[in-house]
Amino acid sequence: MRTLDLLHRWAGGLIGLLLALLGLTGTILVHRDAWVMLPGAGEALVTDAAQVGPVAAGLLADPAGRPQSIIFADDGFGLHRLRMGGGAGAYADQSGHIVSRWDSEWARPELWLADLHKHLLAGDVGETIGGIAALIGLFFIISGIILWWKLRFTFSFRLWPARLSRPAIIRQHRDFGVVMAPLLFLSCLTAVMLTLPPVTNLLLSPVISPAERKAAMAVPAVKGGALAPGLDWAAMLAEARSRFPDAQFRVLTLPRRPGELISLRLRRPVEWLPNGRTMVWFQPETGAMVGSRDAATLPLGARIFNLAYPLHTAKVGGLAFRLVMSVSGLALVLLGTLAVWSFWFRRPPPQRAPAGRKRKPTP
């Protein structure tokens, strides 16, 4: 038990601030649709393919300024987001009018905050570091419950320590942490699933193998040609709508490398994932549909994995669940910062023998 306590305290002292940073940025991002205030952001969603198609065609018409992808407006955010190369992008309202444009993600706080939360501004390496931190967070939760159990009879819930002394901080940390444990476990587990594929494969192994999940998410084995300049985007979206009448258009992505297809992500009502995993693929040279995938028919393991992102980002459950996950994020901020503070800065001074008193010799 003493070894577990040492591991818990040392790990908290070393990465507590990193977990606090992830908790703070995650809490802010949970509500980002509410604080990105631009003209048209609050407009009702247009779902008619006959209206969305011409707007998409207009946004894709100029080869020089053509976006790599369009993330369509949804029920919570009424603007289309255009992704260009090199971090550039734009927001367009649902009539196709550009309301904001940027040359770098640093110009939009919601974008660089998302990059900070997911990648720590360090690309794939930062994402892996964040995933490892979340995995250590799971260790904190499990070891913290074990360490709390022997002292459960002294439980006293406090949002803030009674004093900023090391014993008071440790007691508040222990009792507050055990109350927040279920929410923190959900946050850390879903973060691990989204960032550490080997751990995800291990967790899902009882229901699906990595090869089966990869096969279920595979792109059609069709080679695409050069992107034609005058594709009938309205007809393509209408065909996708006829294939999935109840689905929302979510992400239209153009080929980035030779041989790739045009892909359209859709979200059916049964899906929690905000951008869906229902897919339609088109030939770039003709616009003909060459394949589709219904997310409702995916294997169980793939459908379980698709729950991780909406649960982690509170994209389900409305405002109530966003507030719940905000509590989780703020709890991580409090626990992480106080853990570092008590470990490195609030250690009690070493005990010294009173002057004039001789210590007894050690036998």
Give an overview of the whole structure:
This protein has helices at 2-30, 32-35, 49-59, 109-119, 123-149, 166-195, 197-204, 210-216, 233-243, 300-305, 308-312, 318-344, and strands spanning 69-71, 80-83, 89-92, 98-102, 248-253, 262-267, 278-282, 289-293. It is an alpha+beta fold and 363 residues long. It has a domain at 2-34 and 112-209 and 312-344. An 8-stranded antiparallel sheet has the order 4-3-2-1-5-6-7-8, covered by helices on one side. Helix 1 crosses helix 12 (318-344). The longest helix has 30 residues, at 166-195. It is elongated, with a radius of gyration of 25 Å.
List keywords for this structure.
10% strand, single chain, alpha+beta, 48% helix, 363 residues
How are the secondary structure elements laid out?
Blueprint (H helix, E strand, L loop, with lengths): L1 H29 L1 H4 L13 H11 L9 E3 L8 E4 L5 E4 L5 E5 L6 H11 L3 H27 L16 H30 L1 H8 L5 H7 L16 H11 L4 E6 L8 E6 L10 E5 L6 E5 L6 H6 L2 H5 L5 H27 L19
Antiparallel strand pairs: 1-2, 1-5, 2-3, 3-4, 5-6, 6-7, 7-8
Helix pairs in contact: 1-4, 1-5, 1-12, 3-9, 4-5, 5-6, 6-7, 6-12
Strand content: 5-15%
Give the C-alpha Rg. Answer: 25 Å
| Chain oligomer state | single chain
Mean pLDDT: 92
The helix-and-strand class reads alpha+beta
As laid out across the biggest beta sheet, the strand order is 4-3-2-1-5-6-7-8
Query: Distance between the terminal alpha carbons, to the nearest Å?
Result: 28 Å
User: What is the helix fraction of residues, given as a range?
Assistant: 40-55%
The count of β-strands is: 8
Shape: elongated
> What string, H for helix and E for strand, traces the elements in order?
HHHEEEEHHHHHHEEEEHHH
Uncertain residue ranges: none
Biggest beta sheet summary: 8 strands, antiparallel
Discrete helix count: 12
